Predict the 3D structure of the following.
Amino acid sequence: MKSRIMCLESKAGGLVGPVRIGRVTFSKTGATLYYAGKSFQSLKGSGFKSNYFEVETGEPYWISLVRDRMTKRACTPPTSHRKWTKMFESKTGRESAVCQYPRGPK
């Protein structure tokens, strides 16, 4: 399965929710995402401030790529995606953690 480091924000409590960065794997067809034992499917453009939902609970999520200077409320890594990913994994020894970086434009 293909995997990528992505930013996941839960929208269950409203427009602002906890943000995590983690390695997300894709199903063979790419229609389903998997992270931390949870399955997510696309809302195919029908969501409000969310683009995926958790299959078991139906909770909405915003899932996006991690970028250098994101303008949306999402994780903003300090360096390029590749460098940040290597730095994060080498320092923590794991693949995900709660985002502790500033949000929004710099």
